[in-house]
Queue: 4 jobs
Job 1
Amino acid sequence: MMEKVKVGIVGLGRLGRRHAENLAFRIPNCELLAVCSVNAEEVEQVQHDWNIKYGYTDFDRMLENKELDAIFISSPSGFHCEQIQKALNAGFHVFCEKPLGLYLEEALLVQEVVRKHKDKVFMIGFMRRYDKSYAYAKKKIEEGKIGEPILIRCYSLDPAKAIRGFMQFAKSNYSGGLFLDMAIHDLDLARWYLGAEAKQVWAVGGAYAHPEFRELNDAETGAVLVKFENDKIGIFVAGRNCAHGYHIETEIIGTKGTLRIGTIPEKNMVTVFDENGAIKECSDGFLERFEQAYLSEAEEFISCIRENRQPKVTVEDGVISTALGYACKKSFETGELVNVES
Ligand code: NAI
């Protein structure tokens, strides 16, 4: 078994920096050997602060470094497909953030390349599957606790106070829009929990508190109704303007019971009692809410490489969720009921 898996990461932004920190300091069998970003200042800073051996502003140059075993991709979504293909073809194991692609065609190309490199580990960043509460709910379903799951209701709402940071993210690179960028986590969870594929979607949405979303041809807040196989039901709400914080909530209704995850998006176990009453503060954002999940998924990626096995979340999950997210986007833009391509 290899001693330490040597990793190079591309993308050192909002999430990439957290991944880099996890890889550098929190996984004993991993060594973060190289960092890459088009932003030279970020590269220098991270290299200097964390004592990282190699720094690159050009992804192709990083791939020439044969000391590396694996590439971790946390660059903007539009680069994922190209970078996955290049990294696999250069002989590396690959982890890539969601979404797999912004279009079904490019996601299918990636699938082909992943299938050609079966000896390489490939993992997509659907970290919610590695969150302890979401994994616990999955176990309950597998144990038959709620009978047959028939309906899923999901909220994925970004905090209103993070809107400026989000606008910067959305304007610097095309993200695919609300459904492909945000609702995609829920679309993946829905397939995972319901054990069924989506057939038809109807998405609506608009720009309410922030009209600038219209200029981006995107929805600030939106909802999707999805018909799954066997008439199972999905109800999805996604948004960027949640007053009370980062609200990620999921409900799975079965024939014998219901599971809810994150009904109150609590920051922690503290209740503040003051002149306003008894207050449970809410989660601030994805880095706080999914801290454990980001670490656990990276640990799983490294373990898969060392143990020569593939993770349970597959490239096919990446392709199908992309097709589904894209169908939602199309329905939102056309106002039509859309059949999901499969
Ligand atoms: P960001 O915009 O904050 O950071 C992007 C980083 O990539 C920056 O360091 C930028 O300089 C660098 N970059 C841009 N173009 C590049 C190129 N061609 N080659 C190399 N580096 C390049 O973006 P953020 O929020 O960190 O998102 C990155 C990815 O992670 C996106 O695909 C996003 O969908 C995903 N993401 C996933 C989340 C999750 O919960 N799983 C949460 C947030 C983001």
Note: The chain has twelve helices and 15 strands.
Job 2
Amino acid sequence: KKNVLIIGAGGVAQVVAHKCAQNNDVLGDIHIASRTLAKCQAMAQSVREKNSLKVPGTVEAHQLDALDVAATKALIEKTGAQIVINVGSPFLNMAVMSACIETGAAYIDTAIHEDPAKVCETPPWYANYEWKRRAECEKAGVTAILGAGFDPGVVNAYAKLAVDDYFDRVDEIDIIDINAGSHGRYFATNFDPEINFREFTGRVWSWQDSKWTENKMFEVRKDWDLPVVGKSQSYLTGHDEVHSISQRLGIPNVRFWMGFGDHYINVFTVLKNLGLLSEHPVRTAEGLEVVPLKVVKAVLPDPASLAPDYTGKTCIGDLVKGVKDGKPREVLIYNVADHKQAYDEVGSQGISYTAGVPAVAAAMLIAGGEWDVGTMANVEDLPPRPFLAVLDRIGLPTWLREGEREERLDFSDSARP
Ligand code: NDP
């Protein structure tokens, strides 16, 4: 058993806390820490109320500013945490990683580090911060698993599975992320609007013909006919895993497509063109200084408040093209998740669910040894089958579509943690 410290108390952390509890026979004591103690206490309480603990055990809340490395180190030591799951804001990664390297605790996150002073990070994403610290992790023998959410995360494992089991040569991977759910509000973001809009206000980067290609947001549209969610429109978007998958697996074309409806794009475009997504303060006639984006955030629904009414499904997967036995091949490896089912089980919407469950699967594989590699790794550096086996068991099964054939993949012969 390995004790876990969860950093952050948002939608993803809520899922992580419940899933750690459901697997505390492998994972031991659970500690939850963020700046706001009350949020951590509410999460611990919800774990108790839903009877999520598999075996009797500890769930404790702590107040922590995770940018304070000494305080994070002290909390890791006090709680005896051997695994830290960082699902706080993306500004915390480097500080939390430092605390892990100094204490020897394993580190897991679900998104690349971002500098709050920048509008958005540009490629090469992992090489900007994380990969610079690989030698330090290796020297300290610290396991640091980067980007272990759904995308990045599970989609990286799908890419590795395709390379290992389905192709002799992979030429293209299109990662497709469609949320066909509905929250019933006029306009809302599924995550913190400040973080969410950052993803779409900058330039769009994809890896094509083995080089970075630049586009504008909402410039390149592609429509798909996907399992369960059906016909879906999506736009080329930049995403962390385009970098790591292209580099670590040597694939010449990796693109990321995010689904957006026309209504979302209209509202977003109006907000952006009016300057309401700006992080630069403006002065009103009355002499008040306000940051437009903060005002937009204040009037939009709190993303956590969407979960109880969310219905519908998500479909996220990798469309992989290449060659097998001298013939062209194309497969879609994907998962479908249900918003309402996620809410009933762990109190969060489906997108937080798909991000949080994989981070716990990664923790279980560290506890079980399969992924306790004692160095820094992206998900595609690690064996995918044990990961997909755990995910199948704890709520995120993997499906494969090839031509007319659709099947749920069976990884039960993979080692179990
Ligand atoms: P939220 O914005 O809901 O939560 C972020 C949490 O971080 C808050 O609870 C906040 O705590 C905490 N936090 C911020 N600053 C500090 C600090 N200095 N010290 C301690 N805690 C701090 O985010 P989500 O739950 O939606 O997302 C969490 C992470 O997961 C993000 O990095 C996001 O990018 C990533 N993600 C990854 C996905 C994937 O598939 N790979 C998909 C979705 C999200 P408090 O309020 O108490 O200050």
Note: The first strand starts at residue 4 and ends at 7.
Job 3
Amino acid sequence: MTVESVKPGASATTAPGEPPLAGGGVPLLGHGWKLVSDPLAFMAQLRDHGDVVRIRLGPKTVYAVTTPALTGEVALSPDYIIAGPLWESLEDLLGEEGVATANGPLHRRQRRTIQPAFRLDAIPAYGPVMAEEAHALVERWRSGEALDITAESFRVAVRVAARCLMRGSYMDARAERICADLATLFSGMYQRMVVPLGPLYKVPLPANREFNRALADLHVLVDEIVADRRASGQKPDDLLTALLEARDEKGEPIGEQEIHDQVIAILTPGSETVGATVMSLLLVLTEHPEVGDKIHHEVETVVGDRPVAFEDVRKLTYTANVVTETLRLYPAVWVLTRRAVTDTELGGYRIPRGADLIYSPYAIQRDRRSYGRNEEFDPDRWLPERAKDVPKYAMSPFSVGNRKCPSDHFSMAELTLITAAVASAYRFEHAPGSDARARIGITLRPRRLMLRALPR
Ligand code: HEM
């Protein structure tokens, strides 16, 4: 593969140069076809061409950042904001006033509003719901029938996020409707991102009608949840109360549209990422039965005969390391984009104002330069004496900086509890129709997992 290499030229006398152009582009499409046909392999080999590499998507130049240190620099620098094709494709769903897409002062205010609901000391209050939902999975899987793990994983993710962050008995029935709507929307969004046909998605074909119906229903649902909470007069200590009580810069209550967009902007990424990770965890338990056996042993030792509870989580260190290793090899958020708001410099290269940047936690977290036996599933690499050797920013599945996932503690507690509950009750095997290949959409997850849960 050829690389049109230009050496970094940031010295006192020379202006910083253009990053090298990645090889393998074709006329008209540039590297776009590679990003569609085999995006994981494409992103993973870019570092061989440079620390920052130009790639062409049609007529457009995008800057790929390939080293842990520089991805950390991008995530921490105010010169880069949330924007670019990934985010534009999500705007229909996430709205324009939610925390996941806002920038600048609006984003800072929104983070201040939502942060308390995710703080480490707020998480124990969610423990009973997380445990109840984890044990509900164990109960549901007793039948011995083949399980559609895609549906099961997203269901538990939506139910935990909705019931913890918007408490109230009315959530139980609504959580089911949210699940059904989001399932339709997630698959439709993926298609809209990789095949951006714009107005053609407005043509009243059955798939488009179904997508639009789910989108409309989700918006109605969120309005109902907000109206019910207001009518109840209750103010439980949760995210919804924080949003309803929030004030803007002038001390005025925030607008209805912003409350609405905020609820969707938190529920949607929360459910999609946790759902994808639960699927990857179940794939790991299926393909590495010895990992499940060790979790079973750890739960027996720490918990004994009673059901595993939230309070046990911090003692389940092996189980937590299995979750971490799963997030390393199968990061649900496998690609991130940013836009430069000013002419700037990265790794000695010039990045022009308005440039789109792309980087991949998947590529960074599987890089042989950061990890020995990089493709191997090895939870013990997260033992403290070994984890200290991992280079800075080589493991950031929740990102870093001002856009870092607010839900890292919440998600780790939830995923560890679910993994402990299901692995201590079952071994898993593939059932007919299971397809464990990666499905690369807005998130990364196994394509279609059909599993049988075999009681221990
Ligand atoms: C942002 C990953 C779970 C809510 C992010 C980002 C990552 C991420 C990488 C940063 C995006 C960027 O830098 O552009 C994950 C993973 C999860 C997870 C791997 C689980 C395995 C959740 C959950 C929630 C949530 C459960 C909420 C219930 C959000 C929100 C943002 C975000 C609101 C936007 C933050 C901002 O822009 O300030 N997540 N997430 N995430 N995540 Fe998560």
Note: The pocket of protoporphyrin IX containing FE is lined by residues 82, 99-100, 111, 161, 265-266, 269-270, 273-274, 277, 332-333, 336, 397-399, 403, 405-407, 410-411 (CB under 6 Å).
Job 4
Amino acid sequence: MPFHYDKDSDGIVTLTMDMSGSANVMNTEYQELMGDAVSKLEGDDITGVIITSAKKTFFAGGDLNVLIAIMPENASQALEGVEELKSQLRRLEKLGKPVVAAINGSALGGGFEIALASHRRIVLNDNSIRVGLPEATLGLLPGGGGVTRMVRLLGVQKALPLLMEGKQLRPERALQAGIVHQVVETREELISEARAWIKANPAPTQPWDVQGAGVPDLKFGDPNSYGLLAAAPAVLSKKSHGVYPAPEKIMATAVEGAYVDFDTALKIEGRYFVELASGQVSKNMITAFWFNLNEVNGRASSTGKRVAKLGVLGAGMMGAGIAEVSAKAGIEVVLKDVTLEAAEKGAGGLEGVKPTDSDSDLAGCDLIIEAVFENRELKNKVLGAAESQALPDAVIASNTSTLPITGLATAVPDAERFIGLHFFSPVPKMRLVEIIRGEKTSEETLQRALDYVRQIGKTPIVVNDSRGFYTSRTFGTYVIEAISMLAEGVAPALIENVAKKSGMAVGPLAVSDEVTLSLQLKIHDQTVADDPSLVSDSAAYDLIREMVGLGRAGKSTGAGFYEYPEGGRKFLWPELATRYVKADAGVSEQDVRDRLLFVQALETVRCLDEGVLTSVADANIGSIFGFGFAPWSGGTLQFINSYGVQAFVERADYLADTYGERFRPPVSLRERDKF
Ligand code: NAD
């Protein structure tokens, strides 16, 4: 039986969850097993219960295959399932006997809800263990009593941030936060402490079942409570930006539930849960952050090789970041720059990083990553020199963001070992690496690049060679679309605000300043020189040229679309409005929003058509983690799915008729049902 029921001579039952499959999850199998176990406990003469797991994790949470299938038409059935699940946990905590969760591995989502329904939560202090309720990160709320119990345990002020951000905590942090009672160092202690607690507490009551208990910091007639409620919408809009329904429903569950009894509060929670689960945003987020993410992270590796010694060429912003994350993953790193001084500055005294100005220190490297200035001749030179020092079968990579990999590969004698490893800035924070396969890159080289990305704990997407690859090319359309709108006379504040309200991580004009306008111009001019047919939007580039001419080339030069007052916050350059804004620009807010999002989604479809992208998962994950495409949408292609492909095509045709052919949907899209 996959829930082992072992009663010892003291009458203590150990219930060991061991469901079929690699982890314990909440599904119909669980419902039956837990139902049977609770009935058996109710009918048995026992002293107490220890709940633990036979798996590596304690309990993985909801079964996302089940959750993603909840639709408005089967919502009432889903609600019944949730109610049953909660009533089982309610019976467990009202057995009249002590129930202890002996948390031997991560307990997330539904797993932590089981723990919350236990009278005591003891956690093993292991580095890999996390506990908490991450549902909000998938567009959901904890619907197995999680919101209701957390709010009554901690009060709304402490519970809401944990719930709305879906925080996963290490054992010690969970103890500090007050969501577990005890942390122990060994598995033996986990069980012995559970037994000791059971013996010392023969008839415990949950805090919410104590007479007169409610939500600690929300009480009728208490002025502090009203103060909290008044501040709530501001907290909310900061977290949800108006596009994430989960934080809104979590707050509604908490506040509405605060003024009713516990069981009614559970019912309110269930209703909001089903509303979220049957809605589109949770489907988008589950698709991206679960299915797509697992797909890209789970790419099979065939080499089993690990990088032992890495050479990084160029100790600037990117090179220093690459050296840092690699050294922290235990790789020996040599960081080379033109002068020892520059290399030392980049190395920052970090353990495991040897700064140098000499190619001979690269001897024995099994991976080289080049991150010098974006200049083809310079890259050729440093790559050739480094390759001759490295091991004969070393992988040679470039972190270029714009130069095609196939061309750069000619710098080394063996193009099969050459590949693109495109990191994002700031390297320690950004989890994506875009791996670019050149025309001659071998499968073995690709696999070793994947191994390395996994070794440093980042998420890889794999794309084929193209100018700007996938991420820079697609993100570029977002920035240029915004500047085109400015050139048409749309107010810059409207563009920036609509972009952020639609869920983009950064406003397009702000990011344009970060990248610097002169660099964009340089890339554009190079592209036109190489192939004039590749660039269409000259009005945007005329505007950029004018800004650069005015001495406003971006943040690093002290001025761009924004002003950067010393010690103050940046603000949009007031003269932008007088120079460019036209009262009759005639672009509605809805059109601004759709132009910014559609232009990226359409470029992604073209990347797929051209074979730059080879999977939907790469597109969605690359867009969210690489350039901050609205996470609520599930990524550029999931955005089209959730819009409905045919509706998207119609809307794109309208945008093409009104604003230009770049919005015309490719034929491949007209023929698709979904991605
Ligand atoms: P950077 O200007 O900060 O650093 C470049 C470094 O290369 C400097 O320290 C310079 O001294 C060094 N260098 C120059 N010639 C050298 C030589 N012969 N040998 C060794 N070192 C030499 O530039 P960065 O922002 O770190 O960008 C580096 C590369 O990464 C570029 O190809 C860029 O396109 C790419 N990239 C940048 C970003 C970003 O956001 N900045 C993102 C992705 C990729």
Note: Residues 3-278 form a domain with the 2-enoyl-CoA Hydratase; Chain A, domain 1 fold (CATH 3.90.226.10).
